[in-house]
Specification:
12 helices; elongated; six-stranded parallel sheet; six-stranded mixed sheet; 14 strands; alpha/beta
Amino acid sequence: MTSSVDTVAELAGVSVSTVSRALRNVPGISEETRKRVQRIARELGYVPSIAGSRLATGKTRTVAIVTPSLSKWFFGQVLAAAGSVMREAGYDVLLYELADEATRGRFFDGPALPGRADGVLILALQPTPAELEALTEQGLPLAVLGSEQPGVPCVRVEDRDAGRSAVRHLLNLGHERIAFIGIEQAAGNTLGGVPPAQRLLGYRDALSEAALDHRPEYEVFEENTTAGGSSAMARLLCAEIPPTAVFVASDEMAFGVLGTLRGAGISVPGDMSVVGFDNHELSGLLDLTTMDHSVTRQGAEAARLLVSALQASETSETTLMVPATLVVRGSTAPPRPLRTRTYSPTKTHNHLTETA
């Protein structure tokens, strides 16, 4: 005969609701009772019905994580860390990839989550007030990673300070001609646009502190890919007076920068110093100096904030700041005098001509 929750309750000497709480690891019962109920359920082969549990509690024990990308290294690391915390807390994860504005519009305009998730973790999307209201009207606790929203618990990095630190490192080495390669942001696109913009402001702050003139030709923006970084570096090498150092807004773009410099015969760090941002798992292999902003910690802390919001009766306005630290490797060094260079790309490869 199939075992039921009533049989487990009778043998354990507890109520049916206590059995449900023990099998879902919900707080409020003693550890001795929890273990006794779980042992009896195992012996009887009783498995609680997920659908029945949802009907009884009104909870799905599932959270939605909303991200602009599932393929980028940064989001993969964040999702892995957040998912681990959620599983430990007894929640399943439902992923939503909002890779473009049309998909994003459909998600926030429609009632996608009621009955499917108990809360939402938003990654690097800079939700608008209307989008936040659409979620809160559904009675869903929220947490945000990568931006600060009024009344919503969030985790973020002080990207402007991190940008200043990266450029100060280059300034302290003696560089004055320092370029910035940033992540291109299409007009009206709010997918992950806040941190890269803050890194640019930090770059400008550091140059201003050093009383160096702002040189617009030293600021280049491309897509956040290796190819984008390669293209941006090629454009910088076309400058009449090339930089001696470059701060790149992501490690993935910095990998492309290193490739272009190597292809042009430019020594790193002998002729050009490079600083990235992320501390990507490949940055050590490529000996890239970079800013480490504790990616996995960001994901774990954001998930903990959401768990707290799910378990609390009132919404917290906690803002957790995660520090970024400089990791110095072999891609930065003091500048040495550069000879005059002309950069001329061809169909097959790039030529760098040097004259005394």
